[in-house]
Amino acid sequence: MAEIEKVKCLIIGSGPAGYTAAIYAGRANLCPVLYEGLQPGGQLTTTTDVENFPGYPEGVSGPQLMEDLRAQASRFGTDVRFGIATAADLSKAPYKITIDGEKEIETETLIISTGATAKYLGLEDEKKYAGMGVSACATCDGFFYRKKVVAVVGGGDTACEEAVYLAGLASKVYLIVRKPFLRASKIMQERVMNHEKIEVLFEHNAVGLYGDNGVEGVNLVKRLGEPDEERYSLPIDGFFLAIGHKPNSDIFKDYLDTDEVGYIITDGGSPRTKVPGVFAAGDVADPHYRQAITAAGSGCKAAIEAERYLSAKGII
Ligand code: NDP
Questions:
Q1: Which residue, 3, 213, 242, 255, has most beta carbons within 10 Å?
Q2: 115 and 42 in contact (C-beta within 8 Å)?
Q3: What is residue 1's predicted lDDT score, i.e. its pLDDT?
Q4: 194-221 residue pLDDT tens
């Protein structure tokens, strides 16, 4: 059997939380190992401009920001690796993490920064047309819809951002919103409402898709369940989901407390979980703020906690 690798600090996930934890853990001489996970760089790699990360007065692209954070983490000795954590045993320290179903690592401290993944409506047609007109990432797939008609589902900041982005490529964008209002920030609401190519369909639900060779249209219900409910079809070429995210905490659920959605519950404002030496940072533990800068802040806290824990145990 292959020898089990032993480390002092293992970081899972490569968004702003993971990389910031790595920068701090590296500078504290914890020799951190970081596994990048399914989506290296995390959700921000699918974002266009990030305008609210302090230090970039002109904004910065999501992928560029993540590349900078990765380079900074590497500079202080973080061992950044490809791989996905597929199982965890947090019953006792040192904690065991399985990577890609085969490699085992034992770690004295664990920083979980696995982020969150885009949600789907749960329609059969989303699976049927996956990669054939259905997408949860406008910046990844928008290019395929130049001069075409697309729909975005959702009324939050993500949906508005994706609608504006797609409007720069497509000929027409419908924003399908189930409520009679947008939940997005005022500035994003204004950008959407004032955009000539975007039409907001308030009080609409998407209930199905149709098309012979990929998506050719969406079946909509206006004012679902009301006496004046109305059903109709709308021809579109692309269907984009932007209805929120699910935290990637499944493999830790047997050992850590989570809320009903799956967000890891930590101790007050700290990244401490109920297992000593195991910390959760970023979106996987944050149903409230979910910002790059708050994720980075919690990654910093997690690394400081890891350093103090190791020091108190006499490991460093
Ligand atoms: P949100 O949870 O804020 O919004 C989700 C949207 O999807 C809501 O309009 C919700 O409707 C709708 N929705 C959820 N489920 C369904 C469903 N089954 N059918 C139809 N509609 C549905 O998620 P976001 O991803 O937009 O944003 C997450 C966080 O990230 C927020 O705090 C946001 O402010 C932040 N963010 C910030 C950005 C920035 O500052 N640049 C960019 C993107 C996100 P309803 O309102 O009815 O619940």
A1: 242
A2: yes
A3: 60
A4: 999 999 999 999 999 999 999 999 999 9
Are 154 and 177 in contact by the 8 Å Cβ rule? The answer is yes
Please report, for the domain that includes residue 191, its CATH number.
3.50.50.60
- Ligand 1 mutation pick, 43, 52, 53, 158, max ligand atoms within 8 A of CB: 158
Largest CA distance in the chain: 69
Q: Which of 212, 241, 270 is the last residue of a domain?
A: 241
Give the number of other CB atoms < 10 A from CB of residue 75: 11
Q: Which residues are catalytic?
A: 137, 140-141
Question: Which of 183, 200, 203, 261 for mutating ligand 1's site (highest number of atoms within 8 Å of CB)?
Answer: 183
Domains contained in the chain, number: 2
Task: Report the SS3 class of residue 138.
Answer: helix
Residues 125 and 220 in one domain: yes
Torsion of CA 40, 46, 48, 49, to 10 degrees: -50
Which residue, of 188, 214, 241, is where some domain finishes? 241
pLDDT (tens digit per residue) in 109-137:
999 999 998 899 999 999 999 889 999 88
Q: Are residue 37 and residue 79 in the same domain, yes or no?
A: yes
Structural domain harbouring 129: 120-241
